[in-house]
Design goal:
CATH superfamily of the largest domain: Intergrase catalytic core
Structural class: mainly alpha
Strand order of the largest sheet: 1-2-3
Order of helices and strands: HHHHEEEHHHHH
Distance between the termini: 25 Å
Largest sheet: 3 strands, antiparallel
CATH class of the largest domain: Mainly Alpha
Shape: elongated
Number of domains: 2
CATH architecture of the largest domain: Orthogonal Bundle
Strand content: under 5%
Radius of gyration: 22 Å
Number of strands: 3
Length: 212
């Protein structure tokens, strides 16, 4: 899918690649993009709500274990802290990507933001959760299907709605917040290589040498 660039970047591209050439070759008298300088505002970055204090993480996990809503939603919430993938990657997980015998979930490149396959090691707790789900759903199709049809994954609003039911406001905890929670606690522990943490989060590295 083609990503639409931000307005400011678009102006710079058009200025550099089109109008400067047009002026230099006498096709235009002036660059019309100059009139847009200062007119295009930089969008405000919205940070996802996330619990990052260790004592509060324990409280969150206990709340999830006590969730009284739909069972599939509870399993997804329980699995999220173990794998810390993006919410869309979790919702779209399929059984043919997961090998419980080897304890590995391989997310194909087309589902990943960086368009590279992502290998997710599964802890014994994760495997136990997935085995419980498989005993109900079988081992084909989506791991977390929609309540209406097994042909579609769980709704993108399901996990955030469940967190609201547990008493967490959107600025306190979100489905995406499990990633920030993992990153913060793992880095603060000092027990793991920052590079390994970034790789586990499937973050790309802007430095090509480091990425290699």
């Amino acid at each position: 899918m083609f990503a639409i660039p931000a307005p400011r970047r678009c102006r710079l591209w058009v200025h550099d690649l089109v109008f400067r050439y047009a002026v230099a070759t006498a096709r235009l008298r002036s660059d019309p993009t100059r009139d847009l300088r200062g007119a295009l505002t930089t969008p405000t970055v919205t940070h996802y709500g996330a619990v990052t204090e260790a004592s509060q993480v324990g409280e969150l996990l206990r709340s999830i274990d006590g969730y009284q809503g739909q069972g599939m939603t509870k399993w997804a919430l329980q699995l999220a802290p173990h794998v810390f993938v993006r919410p869309g990657e979790l919702r779209h997980a399929r059984w043919d990507e997961i090998n419980l015998e080897t304890g590995l979930w391989i997310i194909p490149a087309e589902k990943m933001k960086m368009r590279k396959p992502h290998h997710v090691p599964l802890s014994r707790q994760s495997i136990a959760i997935l085995e419980e789900i498989r005993s109900i759903t079988g081992s084909s199709g989506y791991v977390f299907p929609s309540m209406r049809t097994r042909l579609r994954p769980m709704s993108e609003n399901t996990l955030n709605s469940a967190l609201r039911r547990l008493g967490y406001a959107s600025n306190e905890m979100t489905a995406h917040g499990f990633r920030a929670m993992a990153s913060t606690l793992l880095n603060e522990s000092g027990k793991w290589s920052p590079d390994a943490i970034e790789r586990s989060l499937a973050h790309g590295d802007s430095d090509k040498v480091r990425a290699a």
